[in-house]
Amino acid sequence: MKKSMLHLCTTGTGEEDFELNKDEPGMMLSSKNHIGGLEGTEDHSDGKVFALTKSPRCPVNTIKAYLSHLNHDIAVLFQRPRHPSSRFNPNKAIVWYEKNVLGHNMLNNMMRNMSQRAGISPYYTNHSLRATTVTVLSSNNVETQKIKAVTGHRSDTILSQFKQMSSTLS
């Protein structure tokens, strides 16, 4: 994924959100739920992240901060972080990332590694966060069709399985 695949938008009321730039070549990413090609299904999700203006953990501000510290010499979104040393101090440096892309294994294991460093047991995985999202949305009475649009699932059975797995993980 490239940095240019994220687009910062401002509504008429001045609210900001990030959305996926679907005009960017290669943006319609394939996954197990969106295989692409002639047989693929269209992605009906809007791919937006909305600001939470009163929150210190506003996702739009978090993405802006992340983007501001990326290495401008490469276009990729997920870059290898620089290690603090006598030559690199994150409190003083603008660029916090190397000119290297994060590898496939690093991205696949990112949630597990972060959970372990934070002392969370059992650790989270990328998949368990997705399952938890389904459970939270479902328990807050979000319509199944809307949940399926966000997750890319076509089957109600998958959603009930995710809900059961997430409850077990909780």
From TrEMBL:
GO biological process: DNA integration; DNA recombination
InterPro entries membership: DNA_brk_join_enz (IPR011010), Integrase-like_cat_sf (IPR013762), Integrase_catalytic (IPR002104), MAVS (IPR052787)
SUPFAM superfamilies listed in its UniProt record: DNA breaking-rejoining enzymes
Coiled-coil residue spans: none
Taxonomic superkingdom: Eukaryota
Domain (Tyr recombinase) ranges: 90-161
Pfam families with a match to the protein in the record: Phage_integrase
Record-linked PANTHER family: DUF3504 DOMAIN-CONTAINING PROTEIN, POTASSIUM CHANNEL TETRAMERIZATION DOMAIN CONTAINING 1
Name this polypeptide is given: PREDICTED: uncharacterized protein LOC107356369
Species the sequence originates in: Paramuricea clavata (Red gorgonian)
